[in-house]
Every structure is written in structure tokens, then in C-alpha cells.
Design goal:
alpha+beta; Thiol Ester Dehydrase, Chain A; 6-stranded antiparallel beta sheet
Length: 140
């Protein structure tokens, strides 16, 4: 799945749609790729830099995409809200310094009617860059 298909399933538009591709997905997990961390026009950049903590937005978009795909959605998107982020670990200061594409892995480990909890990891070709857990509130 490429960028066009991803952006059609997310409520983000233009440069704010951060994911470029899907390598794999199933009922509980998705692995996406992104090269937008290197883009000078990335809307999350501040003072020309992209702080690693902004990787949470990459993970949130992967969670939203997973919810759309696992729910069978092929068009209509539903709003979801990031309710909390916990156990966050950053191993680098800036994502824009990473030359390789990012791998964005999220795994849903609980889901109830209107909420889900995901574990997320952002990796480069060489190492883990960011990890944590996120609770998402889903709007039907």
C-alpha cells in the first residue's frame, strides 16, 4: 500500500500525512515506512529540526491506519484521539538526522468498544529510535 492509499484512509492531508507505505498488517499489528522525517517542509519541524518526540505522531497515524484497515474501512475515516502516551523512550534527539527511512511498528494489545491500547516502536535501519505505549479513544 502506497502513500495515496494511506492518505485516503487518514484524516490528515498534504504534508501532514506522514506515512509513505505499508509493509505488512494483520488484525493486531501494522508496519509502515516513512521518509517524510527528512523533508524540509515537514509540518512538525521547529527551527529546522524534527525532534524525536514528534515520532509519536508517526505512530498515531499508523494506529489510525491500522484501525481503518482492521475495521475493514476502505473509504470513510473515523476520528480517534490520543488519550495518553506512557513509557516513552527516545534514543536520539532528532529524527531529521536519520538518513534511512523510518519503520513505524504498532501493535494493538487491547481493544474495547471505544478505546484501544497500542505499543509502538520507531526504528531506523540501525536502531530503535522511539518506543512507548499509547491509549486511543475511538469515535464511531
Amino acid at each position: 500500500m502506497g502513500r495515496r492509499e494511506i492518505c485516503a484512509r487518514l484524516p490528515h492531508a498534504g504534508a501532514m500525512c506522514l506515512l509513505d507505505g505499508v509493509l505488512s498488517w494483520d488484525a493486531t499489528r501494522i508496519v509502515c515506512t516513512a521518509g517524510t522525517h527528512r523533508a524540509a517542509d515537514n509540518p512538525l519541524r521547529r527551527d529546522g529540526r524534527l525532534h524525536t518526540i514528534c515520532g509519536i505522531e508517526y505512530a498515531a497515524q499508523a494506529m489510525a491506519l491500522h484501525a481503518a484497515l482492521a475495521g475493514g474501512g476502505h473509504g470513510e475515516t473515523h476520528a480517534g484521539y490520543l488519550a495518553s502516551v506512557r513509557d516513552t523512550r527516545c534514543s536520539v534527539a532528532f529524527l531529521d538526522a536519520i538518513e534511512s527511512d523510518l519503520l513505524v511498528e504498532v501493535e494493538q494489545f487491547t481493544r474495547e468498544e471505544a478505546r484501544a491500547i497500542y505499543r509502538f516502536v520507531l526504528r531506523s535501519a540501525q536502531s530503535e529510535l522511539l518506543s512507548g505505549r499509547a491509549a486511543v479513544v475511538l469515535n464511531p
